[in-house]
Structure formats: C-alpha cells, structure tokens
Amino acid sequence: MHNTFKTEVIQKHASLPARVTKITTPHGEIITPAFMPVGTRAFVNLMTPTDLIDAGSQIILGGNTYHMMVAPGMEIIEAAGGMHRFMSWDRPMLTDSGGFQVFSLSKNNQICKIDEKGGHVKHPISGKMIHLTPDTSIHAQKIIGADIIMAFDECTPEEGGRTAALAAFERTHRWLRESVEIHEKNPNSIYGSKQALFGIIQGGRFRDLREQSTQCILDMPLDGIAIGGEVIGFDMAKTVEVIDWVVPMLPDNKTRYTMGVGLNPQDLIDVVAGGIDIFDCVAPTRNARHGTLYCGHTVKKDNWVVFENHAENGKLLIKKAIFAKDDQPILPGCTCYTCQHFSRSYLHYLYKQQSMTYCNLACIHNIHVLQAVCATLRETILSS
Length: 384
Description:
By secondary structure, the protein is of the alpha/beta class.
C-alpha cells in the first residue's frame, strides 16, 4: 500500500452536492459514500472482521481513544503493533479523539471535569485520573495507529444555548491549534504510517458560529473536515440544515464526515444529498442486538433515491409474536448472509432464547442494509 492520504473527486451528482470520492490511505482505498461501523472498544459488537467485509464495509471506526486508554491501555496496543493488528483489521480505520466521551461523562462532575486544558476523567476501575488533552489524545491516537485521527474537541451541548455553544466553540479551536501543532511534529503513527488529521466543526444550532468554525478549520493544514456536536445525527432536520450552511464553504479535495449519523437508512441518503462522504453510528448494531431490524430497500426517485419502508418506520421488531411462524427472511430480496439462510421465525426464536447467535445474525443484517444504501448512492451519483 502507498503510505499516503488523499481525497479525489470521482463524480459529482448532476443536480445535488452529492459526490463519489476515492480516499487513499496506507491501508487501502475507500470509495465514498461510505458508512463506518463503530468498534468503540476495539471490536464491532458481535461481528468479526470477515462479517464486516462480507457486509460491504470498507472502513471502520476502531477503538475510541478514551476507551482504549481505560482498557486495554496504550501499552497493550503498542505491544500488539497498533489497532489494525490488534483487531485483525487490515483495511482503513478512523478513530476519534475521546472528546465526545469527555462531554458525556462531564454530565456527572464526580466522574469528569472539563477545564481549559481538557477533560479529567476518573478511571472507572482504578479511580486514577485520566487526563485527556490535545497532547494526550493525539499521542494516544499515534499509538492506536488509525489512518484518520481527530483533533481533540469539545462536543457542543444542546442544553445551555448560545453561551454553552460559544464556550465549546472557543475551546475546540484552541485545542485544534494545539492538536495540529503536535501532529505536524510527526504526521505518522508510531509505526510509520501516514495519518490524516481531521478538524471538527462545532457551533451548535447557530449559523454564524458554524460558519466561523468552518473558516477556522479551513485556515488550518488539515486533511479532512468533520461536522460534530450533540445535534448532529440526533436532530436530522437540523443536521441537514447545518450541512447546507457549511458545505458550500468546503474545498473539493478534503473528505467530509458527519459524526454519529446512521440511526436510520434514510439519514445516510439525506446527508449524502448535502455533499457528505463518510459517517458512523453505533445505532445499527445496538438496534440489532435489541431486536430492531432494518426492513426496506433503497429505490431511485426523481434522479435521486429514497429508502422505501417494508415495515412500520422501516424497522421490524423481531420479538413480536407475529414472527413466530413467519418463514420469510427479515427483508425479502436482501443478499446478506442472514437473509439468505434464516427466517424471521428462527430469528424470533433465537431472540427469545437470548442467544448470542441472534445478535451476530442481526448485526450482520443491519450493517449490510446500510452498506447496500451506500452502494446504491454511489451507483446513482455515478450514473447521474
């Protein structure tokens, strides 16, 4: 593989900001739009690397920085030769900075406190303090060794209005400058592979802050641009609006990433229509484990695509008694391993038995559906 990172536009949609790009990394190429399954703790729940590849995954989010510092610890990951070898995943990988976890944990100030230097988190087992700052986050990500790493930021909360948004905005940009300075001293992982550093646009629900944040990131030597904050992925109408504000400002040659998008298949379609390339979300595998299975297909409509539901809200609740004798697959016509081999009846039975086999088969299906959406999006853009 080439020890480089670059983004090239292959095709733009004829009438929308949607695009297909090729991202080149030291661990291979990604053709976008691309969904990233999330392996927060160095594994995607109930899925093997083979399952992920067979479902169509090109890149994963592997190993959240905060969780890796908690367990197994940086020494273990370094001894294994980095996260790719530790997880036995030889394809592209992105990791996050730990900023979102600091934001989440800081809601309990007995566990985590945020100050101007970063987040200070009490280890859940030992009680020792973990200090997450631009310096410790970037250095940890150098040990993780992901192809794409994130500048340390403060996730903008929905509570607190403009005052809270401004506080997160100011810290994020100060920490961004520190992250860039640390990264530029050695833009490679400790194993010698080129790492791309992405900055994160914050600013909450406020257009002027989002635009100022975007300009701050454009002024920095970054390889890609993420859009973050608690609202992104949680409120899809606002997510699309934020994308519409900032995408016209973005250059073509940098990857665009919406963080935490993928609760529903239609969400992917909506952000890609606005010009986004990659996205991640824990919801597909979490929903699968709790009995919610995607049920629908992507269909072309008016030179674009929509997710056509084949069940209420596009989701099948496998625990319902009506599936006990249903010999259909989860989604007729689906080519995933689960739908090709097993019935709703069998999955209903496995779910009621609380079988781990159910969780594996369900996760395979949900990830496959999202990857199939991405494949249709790529085909549609290329043929527009």
